Task: inverse folding
């Protein structure tokens, strides 16, 4: 007889990994449902919101429900693609549950992680390129890159202190604005505005806003509105951090 709870655990773990990798709500729900059906469970019900995943089954007179809380996360394209690929393979040819769990765990253990210096370099490059995109000179682009690297350092420090998303964003925006003002005051940069804007683009919640609109359009209103609220709050935090830092600096 099929172990319903083992199948449910497999489906939930796969859905959880897809969601923490940045997968859309409809993708998470559909993936969990497809895995359950692939293993012969036709009574599965799945419900997901940005911070919670719930699935329940009723099969062969047995009922089982699982719930996972989804932590704060970003978007990991490599992991998302790997988990989607595993889901498709299991739906096409269902492996024994134990073997499927081993493959899933192997993907989790093999997740690509970049070193902190590589992340700082990415912050530097992104901020500098954004500044060039907005019309900054090469001199300002280098200053924006330095501000972007400062944002990366600030976010890492805030993570170590256990700060929440809004505090991290405010701190990153404030440090970036102060450094941009300082570099331009020393003559290393020409336009405080372009340097600041280029660096702050790292913090702009473009993905969150896009996901919010998409979720609303496909009918996931709870998810869409919560992500929209998150995007708006992040924007407010950027404005507050930057405005406070510049305001205090100009007083002195």
Result:
């Amino acid at each position: 007889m099929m172990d319903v709870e083992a199948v449910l655990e497999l489906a939930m773990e796969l859905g959880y990994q897809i969601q923490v990798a940045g997968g859309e709500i409809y993708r998470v729900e559909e993936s969990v449902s497809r895995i359950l059906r692939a293993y012969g469970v036709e009574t599965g019900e799945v419900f997901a919101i940005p911070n919670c995943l719930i699935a329940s089954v009723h099969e062969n007179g047995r009922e089982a429900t699982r719930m996972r809380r989804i932590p704060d996360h970003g978007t990991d394209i490599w992991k998302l693609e790997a988990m989607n690929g595993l889901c498709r393979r299991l739906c096409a040819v269902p492996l024994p549950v134990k073997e499927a769990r081993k493959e899933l765990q192997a993907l989790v253990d093999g997740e690509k992680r970049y070193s902190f210096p590589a992340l700082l370099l990415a912050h530097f490059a992104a901020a500098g390129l954004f500044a060039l995109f907005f019309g900054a000179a090469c001199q300002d682009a280098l200053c924006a890159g330095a501000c972007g690297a400062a944002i990366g350092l600030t976010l890492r420090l805030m993570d170590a202190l256990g700060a929440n998303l809004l505090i991290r964003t405010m701190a990153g925006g404030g440090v970036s604005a102060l450094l941009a003002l300082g570099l331009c005051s020393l003559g290393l940069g020409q336009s405080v505005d372009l340097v600041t804007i280029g660096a702050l683009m790292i913090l702009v919640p473009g993905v969150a806003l896009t996901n919010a609109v998409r979720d609303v359009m496909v009918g996931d209103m709870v998810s869409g509105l919560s992500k929209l609220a998150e995007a708006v709050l992040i924007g407010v935090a950027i404005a507050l951090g930057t405005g406070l830092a510049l305001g205090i600096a100009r007083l002195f």
Remarks:
- Residues 214 and 224 are 7 Å apart (CA to CA).
- The mean pLDDT is 87.
- The radius of gyration is 22 Å.
